[in-house]
Amino acid sequence: MSSSEEARINFNTNLSISLPSSSSSSSSSSSSSQGSLMPPSKLNPSEKANIPGAQSQNGIANSASLFSEMAVLELLQPPAQGLDDHLIEFSEALKTVAKALRQAAEGKASAQAEAAEWREKYKLERARNLQLEDKEKLNLENGSDVDDVRTYNPANKPALCDEQSNKCCAGHGICSHEVLWDGMPDSNSPVVRKASFKLSWCCKGEQSDQHKHVVSFERGNIITAERSSKQISLKWESCPRTVLVFTKPNSVSVQTLCAEMIRWLRDQKKLDIYVEPRVRGELMKGSSYFDFLESWEDDEEISRLHTKVDIVITLGGDGTVLWAASMFKGPVPPIVPFSSGSLGFMTPFYSEHYREYLESILKGPIGITLRKRLICQVVRNAAKNEHETEAPMLVLNEVTIDRGISSFLTNLNCYCDDSFVTCVQGDGLIMSTTSGSTAYSLAAGGSMVHHQVLGILFTPICPHSLSFRPLILPEHVSVRVEIPANTRNPAWASFDGKNRKRLEAGDALVCNMAPWPVPTACLVDSTNDFLRSIHEGLHWNLRKARSFDGPYDT
Ligand SMILES: NC(=O)c1ccc[n+]([C@@H]2O[C@H](COP(=O)([O-])OP(=O)(O)OC[C@H]3O[C@@H](n4cnc5c(N)ncnc54)[C@H](O)[C@@H]3O)[C@@H](O)[C@H]2O)c1
Ligand SMILES: Nc1ncnc2c1ncn2[C@@H]1O[C@H](COP(=O)(O)OP(=O)(O)OP(=O)(O)O)[C@@H](O)[C@H]1O
């Protein structure tokens, strides 16, 4: 196309097309503005007014409207006979313009539709968030936090709790009234004897910080509160009335201590006391004084213990704390663990000073470590339906899957939620709580973890691989360990070192964080007790100090 026959097309703002002089004069002679190829700026006002949509709101001509499809189609009528090749070329150019305009219009329409759809989504999301915020506010006003409701009220019976928690916690902590509720339906259950308490997260004098969300999202900023570093504190709201004492068996010194402590609790503190049937028998054999001791006969009674007992006392080592925890398949009352002799990892209280400690514990407040437990479910390959599943096991330390007496390597396929983690080839695998991190998991090379950290330790036992380092998974995952169908030998699961179960090919063990932690009383606070146990129990990083007996070069 020569410069004199130039057809210049500008799509950006104003469509301007320069025609060859001959056709230009013939077009401009037309009185109608329709089909005019003059730029709108060159038209007189009345001509402009005749162009549909030519005037946009801000006065700038809109090219898409200016060349409405109708107008363009009219222009695209077959050229009159005798028109030269330039006009054919020009008509081709206009076809391209029409196509571009059509595409632009379609694009705009679809963008508008999409925008409308997003606006609608935003409105819905906003409404949902407002609803959730209202719900959360209501929960806080009623003194329950989402976790706490799950932890203490699995059956969702909030009526009594809501009413009472306002009174007892005033919205500032975890209250025990749900436990009282558990006792209500049974008219014989001594509901009135169960002392109420509240748990709160202390933060070293910083009152305002107490009920921060763990993670909040305010005005686009994500903020986390350091809740895990704070000590949990238990305050009695009515006096504890009932104590349950567990003792290590086969120990004369523990039996003597137990008898002495029970006398003191009864005579000085006027408490009701539960002991295991074995202990009641032993004590009764020695003296009829112990006739007042209460005990239980069957599992049904054991399952109701948490509704009657205010405090659990353990006399023994860590094994006795594990034993006591295993008696509670749901909520656990606060445990005060006394060591008999050597200091245990979970037994910070020295038994020689039990009077002073118990005086102060019965008065409160008490520092508490909430020790998370794992709930473990064996899923049998042979089970025909879900009713055939075995009762789940709760562990405070760990669940172990090992090769038992077999001399073959175990092969364990492990999944975290729906993701494949690895195949353990070695002696076995430990899934441990953070409380158990200083027990078997530590011996297998796992890290020691502060008990207030939430997580599941995934520690292999003697893996036949140089690169298999232990993992720590977040507490909300579900870990599934499967025995492969082609395994050469069965595997064995044990729970806190007890209750071994044989796992056949195709069986699996599913492990989740349990909603019922074990609250243990602290001697000082969670951190101090933890550090003291690893210093004194393990002699952690004990090393002779270097001698500084001379000046060093600088
Ligand atoms: N190789 C090992 O280290 C190994 C082997 C098997 C079992 N265990 C541990 O033993 C526990 C069972 O304890 P038990 O007393 O009934 O049996 P137990 O009498 O055989 O005692 C095992 C030892 O583990 C200690 N222990 C228990 N829990 C602990 C903890 N949370 N932190 C630090 N040490 C702890 C006990 O104080 C005791 O010294 C299991 O849960 C397991 O963790 C360890
Ligand atoms: N009340 C109980 N009934 C039955 N068995 C118990 C009871 N308390 C503890 N055990 C078991 O007795 C064993 C020894 O208990 P524990 O660990 O408390 O004593 P320990 O070994 O002398 O203490 P430490 O761990 O400090 O050396 C453990 O296997 C534990 O499971």
UniProtKB/TrEMBL annotation:
<feature type="region of interest" description="Disordered">
    <location>
        <begin position="16"/>
        <end position="57"/>
    </location>
</feature>
<dbReference type="Pfam" id="PF20143">
    <property type="entry name" value="NAD_kinase_C"/>
</dbReference>
<keyword id="KW-0520">NAD</keyword>
<feature type="compositionally biased region" description="Low complexity">
    <location>
        <begin position="16"/>
        <end position="41"/>
    </location>
</feature>
<dbReference type="GO" id="GO:0005524">
    <property type="term" value="F:ATP binding"/>
</dbReference>
<keyword id="KW-0175">Coiled coil</keyword>
<keyword id="KW-0418">Kinase</keyword>
<dbReference type="GO" id="GO:0006741">
    <property type="term" value="P:NADP+ biosynthetic process"/>
</dbReference>
<dbReference type="GO" id="GO:0019674">
    <property type="term" value="P:NAD+ metabolic process"/>
</dbReference>
<comment type="similarity">
    <text>Belongs to the NAD kinase family.</text>
</comment>
<dbReference type="Pfam" id="PF01513">
    <property type="entry name" value="NAD_kinase"/>
</dbReference>
<dbReference type="InterPro" id="IPR016064">
    <property type="entry name" value="NAD/diacylglycerol_kinase_sf"/>
</dbReference>
<dbReference type="GO" id="GO:0003951">
    <property type="term" value="F:NAD+ kinase activity"/>
</dbReference>
<keyword id="KW-0547">Nucleotide-binding</keyword>
<keyword id="KW-0521">NADP</keyword>
<dbReference type="InterPro" id="IPR002504">
    <property type="entry name" value="NADK"/>
</dbReference>
<protein>
    <recommendedName>
        <fullName>NAD(+) kinase</fullName>
        <ecNumber>2.7.1.23</ecNumber>
    </recommendedName>
</protein>
<dbReference type="InterPro" id="IPR017438">
    <property type="entry name" value="ATP-NAD_kinase_N"/>
</dbReference>
<keyword id="KW-0808">Transferase</keyword>
<keyword id="KW-0067">ATP-binding</keyword>
<dbReference type="InterPro" id="IPR017437">
    <property type="entry name" value="ATP-NAD_kinase_PpnK-typ_C"/>
</dbReference>
<feature type="coiled-coil region">
    <location>
        <begin position="101"/>
        <end position="135"/>
    </location>
</feature>
